[in-house]
Amino acid sequence: MKRIQRRVAVAGILTLGLLVAGCGGGDAAETAGDEGYRVGLLLPESKTTRYDTFDRPFIEARLGEACADCEVLYRNADSDARQQAAQAEELLDQDVRVLILDAVDATAAGAVVQGAEARGVPVVAYDRLAAGPVDYYVSFDNEKVGQAQARSLLEALGPSPAGGAIVMINGAPADPNAAGFKRGAHAVLDGAVTIGREFDTPDWSAEAARTGMAAAITALGAEKIIGVYAANDGTAGGAIEALKAAGVTDLPPVTGQDAEIAAVQRILTGEQHSTIYKAIKPQATVAADMAVAAATGTPYAGHATTFTDNGTAKVTSVLLPPVAVTRANVKDTVVADGFYTAPQLCTGSFAAACHDAGIR
């Protein structure tokens, strides 16, 4: 019997025959049983706007469809791994039956996962693969994200980029996703362009990215920087601020990730070349369905699964495909999917750029 099935078998004995029926996935959520339970949701930070704007409400909505009587207990760690560990302990003390965990620090989160296992509580690793005996994992193929970012940069530079160098602004060292983005980007960029400066960005801080970019400008010279690989939209924004502060008016192409509204608006006006759109609703839906499956002891049966090795176990995983967004396909991606509406994007000074891109 699998570990998650043993957990629920014990829970069933203790609750004197709790009736459960799983929601394994698919287009329509099925009821998870007449009696509800608590689901712990631990998200890592609030510097990136996506988590409270999209991830949390999408996860809560799907859980509400799958288990109307279930209660979601939500905590945000604000980039503090110790705080996240304390929050996990708090939720475990409140008898959550399953944890959805987006780790601040994947290695440190191994203690959280082990603590949950000791209490018979399964863990769904969301967006970032935590260490320890994780039950399920859902994210995007991180190396493909980095490859897509790098390809979009090379496309902007043209077939024979020469006469300068790019700056690589990678993500947070404690985020295992960032390592995947970096590997994927290097697989495309190495040998194709000169990488003049490269640095990681603690906590995905836009201010740290700005400081690092300013140092790169000083070292290389603004006129020698032909492009910027920025691992997400926050770091892209910091890089663009540094370039502007250095007096650069003809900005080089800058990549990003997460399709934050400010980044999409920068793309429309030409300040940022691209972002990566990771459709959060499907990811959140899979996480919720995995959580219900783990909590009720039923196999997840939604998207096709693979296995991801986190050093402790080969974790059943769903890895979703990323999409590169440039000015040419904003309308056909984030707008067509309802991620943003035209009124949200096309405010004030962005109205003309939206009109030129066919967004009305």
TrEMBL record:
Residue span, Periplasmic binding protein domain: 40-298
Origin species: Catenuloplanes atrovinosus
Protein location: Cell envelope
UniProt signal peptide: 1-28
Chief site of localization: other
Residues in coiled coil: none
Keywords: Signal
Record has Cell membrane as a keyword: no
InterPro entries: Bact_Solute-Bind_Prot2, Peripla_BP_I, SBP_2_dom
Protein name stated in the entry: D-xylose transport system substrate-binding protein
Gene3D superfamilies associated with the record: 3.40.50.2300
Annotated Pfam families: Peripla_BP_4
GO terms assigned for molecular function: carbohydrate binding
GO cellular component, one term: outer membrane-bounded periplasmic space
